[in-house]
Here is the input.
Amino acid sequence: QSESKPANVPTGSEAADGSKPANVPAGSEGRNSQCQPFRQVIQEKWRAGLSAQRIWQDLRAEHGFCGAYDSVKRFVRGLGQTDPVAFRRMECEPGQEAQVDFGKGAPIERPNGRKKRPHIFRVVLSYSRKGYSEAVWHQDTETFIRCLENAFRYFGGVPKTLVTDNLKAAVLKADWYDPELNPKLESFCRHYGTVVLPTKPYTPRHKGKSESGIDYVQDNALKDRCFKNLADENNFLLHWEQNVADTRIHGTTKEQVAKRFEEYERAALPPLPPSNFPFFQEGKRSVHRDGHVEVEKAYYSVPPEYLNRTVWVRYDGRVIRVFNHRLEQIAIHAKTDPGRFRTAPAHIASKKISMVERGAEYLLRRIQRIGPHSSQWANMVLEERGIPGLRVLQGFIALAGRHSAQEIERTCEIALQHGCLRLRALRPLLKQGNVQGDFEFIKTHPIIRDMQEYGGLIKVSFRA
Here is the structure.
């Protein structure tokens, strides 16, 4: 039996002067490592950021260490190693969560003889593992919402949260902490009382139930199958969900999927709203110079402060809704025919509203401020002339802007005395400065002589 070589005896790969040997596989030293007596010193130097080679040099210089560099290197590597952390399984309460994903479906024969594979939309309830699958041609927002709605109807309730990946139909801008969701999807979630929680980008394990659910559909239901059309594939998937997927004993829960769903989760799902989500189209629009936006060749007004700005429009066959950049509704209109305008009175700028449009009450309130005679004259004009009298009152207010209230009041008093309700009769009176007043005769003036002087002049004239 050969004797084992002492640990402190240099091997053939070590230089006699203790220089750095060739690299060796990473690993940690056992209990007989020469570094064990210096463990605390090595730990302090490693935490200070020193390299293994520097630690080996300091040990030799300061502590008389006679071991090899590889021994220190392996020991330091052992300090840096940590035990692997297992993934934490996140289990949910009944009705709390559903996970959503897309995958590839079974091919469908096209009329031209070629085959095309649709997308498979799948929702899995996280508690019971009950699923819903649907084959679709597109992954746009409208299709995504309709599939979710079909799944809710199939389950008979709405999960409180929906875990999705960052597909474009749902997420406009991926962000683990503050994602930007599609506005239409946000409206859908408000309608059904649920929320969407996108996963962290490039982290499929955050929705492992739906990921494995897609694999289960592809491997168990659709592998090596081909369908004539999309409806046939969806009918097959519905039958498969009810007769195969629901009847299996799930590998994790150790319970039958359908039984677990019926006993615990169905009643825990929040109820469906009374109506389906009102589907609509939407898009950005620029507000024209006349304060309107164009939707399907018709025009709808917005508040004047949004002139020349961009707004968000949602519309269906009945209603046009306009939102600002914070998705706050700023206008709503009934849909009209192409080429027609819908203008709300509140959206007309005050500078662009004529007095006639403001109505008789507004005009009478302004004239009432001038004085009682003016107010009485204006009311009599409206009583006698009706709607055409509104234009007369507008002209009367214009006269009040060029003459004092006192002059207007005098003129109206005279007009009322003579029963004159014509505006063109008031203008001459105002130009003449109203009616000539009564003047008091003066008794003395430099050019007026005394009556006795006039008598003397008369006597002189007769004598002549």
About this structure: The CA atoms of residues 52 and 76 lie 6 Å apart. The first helix runs from residue 39 to 47. Residues 1-30 have pLDDT under 50 and may be disordered. The longest strand covers residues 97-104.
